[in-house]
Amino acid sequence: MRPSRSVPPWPALAGFGAAVAVAALIGGLGVSGTAGEYQSLQQPDWAPPSSVFGPVWSILYAMIAVSGWLVWRRTGWSPALNWWVAQLVVNAIWTPIFFGFGQYGLALFDIVVLWVLIGVTVWRFRPVSRLAAGLLLPYWAWVTFATALNATIWTMN
Questions:
Q1: Tens of pLDDT along 19-67?
Q2: How many other CB atoms are there within 10 angstroms of residue 101's CB atom?
Q3: What is the per-residue pLDDT across 101-118, written as a single tens digit (0 to 9) for each?
Q4: What is the DSSP string of 46-104?
Q5: Whole-prediction pTM
Q6: Are 64 and 20 in contact (CB under 8 A)?
Q7: CATH assignment of 10-24+48-156, given 3.90.320.10, 2.30.29.30, 1.20.1260.100, 3.30.10.20?
Q8: Nearest Cα to Cα of residue 3 among 70, 49, 51
């Protein structure tokens, strides 16, 4: 479905922002009151303090929303956006798996799947909008770092 020329683009951006906010909310519910749990885990020296995650994810989520919206503006709902949704769903469930259930190995599997899905989304977005694909690169880099952190925490705990 192509975007309607009569529909202003801003409500659609709000829709993409809402989708990302739901993913963030699911993750936020999974980490409510877990700063102490994170601090109590054995961690590598390079693990950031828990206070870093909120600001980083706020920026990344904004970039994810804009990225999806840019593709939608060019194509309407397209198969590329199905990958965007898939990575967002897998992103949302990582936090409850890691913190809510304390399943660090399962969380590692989830985040590896997330990493692959982000890569596919970048690949599918690039022909449509280089900017949209580029906006996902910091997210992909952060998830690369988070994957290493998840793996290390799993082995240390």
A1: 999 999 987 775 666 667 788 899 999 999 988 988 999 999 999 999 9
A2: 11
A3: 899 999 999 999 999 999
A4: TPPPGGGHHHHHHHHHHHHHHHHHHHHHHHSS-HHHHHHHHHHHHHHHHHIIIIIS--H
A5: 0.91
A6: yes
A7: 1.20.1260.100
A8: 70
